[in-house]
Write a structure and sequence with these properties.
heterodimer, A: 388 residues, alpha+beta, nine-stranded antiparallel β-sheet, 31% strand, globular, B: 147 residues, Alpha-Beta Plaits, 2 domains, four-stranded antiparallel β-sheet, two-stranded antiparallel ribbon, 3 helices, elongated, binds iron/sulfur cluster
Chain lengths: 388, 147
């Protein structure tokens, strides 16, 4: 396909370095494309910044806590009593955001509170707090130590990266509950008989709604991650390369995902928040911003997506979801959800957000400032992520 | 929403009933005997168990005080609600999850600004948000003793 406007990432980067790049947030871009049309918008705008701030369970911290003689090959590792996966090299471990301490009351008194878990360890470390490291081992000739227990801070760690096997879900379900009792889900509390509908994503600000075919986002894409710098590692787990799409190319179900990694030491706790989801468990909410280079008029068109163009499936989490029934109760637009009320089975239902739009916008704006100030350059993906 | 006369009281209180008092129409006596207006914001009364009720009382100050004393005389726990719930604004991420279960709409999403607003005047201190808020930004203050 030939384009009227053709720019390269290198050209855009040169403009960023000179402080001349025109950068808009995804929200600002909606109106710009509407006003100028996609071709003129593509000529005038170089980068669109997206942002999202949602809980995503598939998150965790990969860390190396360093040796302290006599050396140790940790077989069991806990931070503040939350177990980490230690089946790696001697002092490497991975702590999952949803991991819970052994003595957590879980859902014994339903709905459980899940006050502290892996995500809280990560947030505590980022806030500069010391956490209690506990290691157990069996002892080898080269690693004789059997136990190690001490306080450790993020600064003490040799390495700490947030590593999220899945993030940035492109579209998601709107959750309702058709049963006659309240349920507590990862989509928040759902009152009986569909008396509330909970929805996620940041709509027109969401990264993957602005590049629905992942034309500019791939392995190696530099991103704003939790207030620091991160990179896309490729497709996330459960990535769906061939979703059903509407006429604008927007998937109409939960589909694309990204795997992300970033240096935790460069992040800011304002954008990395542990969340305790009542009756469900612990998760990690994180601010992610992805810059989209406006290489041509197609990218201007895609980034011009508005909340009204985004359709989301309404799903029953009372019966259907836990039983693996894929039934959708219909599509609603993000704009309808944002208005505070949607129709579910013909009945007016309050729509409750789970993604912080305020924080999502803040992320997009922060990323915009960084690019405008020449502090953040774009990258070209090393490998594309399949999406058709 | 304060009433124009400054001697009028408008208070939200949280009541706890011992099991044996749950069935009695003591709350109705607030208006019958003491001339106070009240509205029930939230109630959980199960026969033979401790009951809880959050009510809004309006009326002259002395009548309010007599009414409260009357309830206490009948072994009803009374805690003024205004100080019982507060939000840590630095912690709130304005996600909106709490608005799902807030029975009084004291927590509500402002569609324009996308901020979740907390109106402690309307709050019945039912405590729902303190359980639901994923970052524990809603706090139940315990200074008043009960809870
Ligand atoms: S649930 Fe908590 S963090 Fe979210 S808007 Fe309500 S008070 Fe704020
Ligand atoms: S305690 Fe929380 S949920 Fe209950 S009325 Fe007050 S703000 Fe709403």
């Amino acid at each position: 396909m030939t384009h009227e406007v053709k720019k390269t990432v290198a050209e855009i980067n040169r403009r960023i370095e000179k402080g001349k790049a025109v950068v808009l947030t995804a929200a600002e871009m909606v109106e710009t494309v509407r006003r100028l049309g996609k071709v003129r918008a593509a000529k005038e705008v170089d980068v669109v910044t997206t942002g999202t701030f949602s809980p995503m369970c598939s998150s965790g911290m990969l860390f190396n806590f360093g040796q302290e003689p006599p050396t140790l090959k940790a077989q069991k590792v806990r931070l503040n009593n939350v177990p980490a996966h230690a089946g790696l090299a001697a002092v490497d471990a991975y702590i999952g955001a949803t991991e819970l301490p052994k003595d957590d009351p879980l859902n014994k008194v339903h709905p459980g509170r899940f006050k502290y878990g892996g995500a809280h360890v990560i947030e505590d470390l980022l806030r500069g707090k010391a956490v209690r490291l506990f290691c157990e081992s069996y002892g080898t000739d080269c690693y004789p130590r059997r136990t190690l227990e001490k306080d450790i801070t993020l600064a003490d760690m040799k390495y700490a990266a947030l590593f999220n096997p899945r993030n940035c879900y492109q579209n998601y379900n709107v959750a309702v509950n058709l049963t006659s009792r309240i349920i507590y889900t990862y989509m928040g509390p759902l009152k009986p008989n569909a008396r509330n509908a909970n929805y996620a994503t940041a709509g027109e600000l969401s990264p993957l709604f602005n590049d629905p075919y992942l034309k500019t986002i791939g392995l190696g894409t530099r991103i704003f991650m939790g207030g620091g710098i991160g990179y896309v590692m490729g497709a996330g787990t459960q990535h769906d390369p061939k979703p059903k799409r509407n006429e604008r190319g927007i998937p109409i179900s939960a589909s694309g995902t990204l795997m992300l990694k970033g240096d935790l030491k460069g992040m800011n706790a304002r954008y990395v928040r542990a969340v305790s989801i009542l009756g469900y468990g612990v998760s990690l909410a994180m601010g992610i911003g992805i810059p989209i280079p406006i290489l041509n008029e197609d990218m201007a068109f895609f980034t011009g997506v508005s909340d009204a163009d985004i359709q989301m499936p309404v799903k029953d989490y009372g019966h259907d979801y836990p039983n693996g029934v894929g039934r959708s109760l219909g599509l609603v637009t993000y704009a309808e959800c944002r208005s505070g009320e949607i129709l579910v089975n013909g009945k007016k239902t309050p729509a409750v957000p789970l993604t912080s739009l305020t924080m999502s916008l803040e992320v997009a704006q922060k990323l915009k400032e960084q690019i405008e100030q020449g502090k953040f350059l774009l990258t070209e993906p090393v490998e594309a992520i399949p999406s058709e | 929403m304060d009433t124009p006369q400054d001697k009028q009281y408008r208070k939200v209180v949280y009541l706890t009933f011992p099991p044996e008092a749950s069935g009695k129409p003591l709350v109705c006596d607030l208006s019958r005997v003491h001339g106070l207006a009240f509205s029930i914001l939230q109630a959980r009364i199960t026969p033979r168990h401790e009951g809880q009720m959050t009510i809004e009382i309006t009326g002259p100050r002395d009548a309010y005080e007599r009414g409260i004393a009357y309830l206490k005389d009948h072994d009803i726990g009374v805690v003024p609600v205004a100080q019982r719930i507060s939000r840590d604004d630095d912690s709130c991420i304005h996600c909106g999850m709490c608005t799902a279960l807030c029975p009084t709409k004291a927590l509500s999403l402002n569609i324009e600004t996308r901020l979740v607003e907390f109106d402690d005047e309307t709050c019945s201190a039912c405590g729902m948000c303190t359980k639901v808020c994923p970052v524990k930004a809603m706090e139940m203050l315990l200074e008043n003793g009960v809870m």
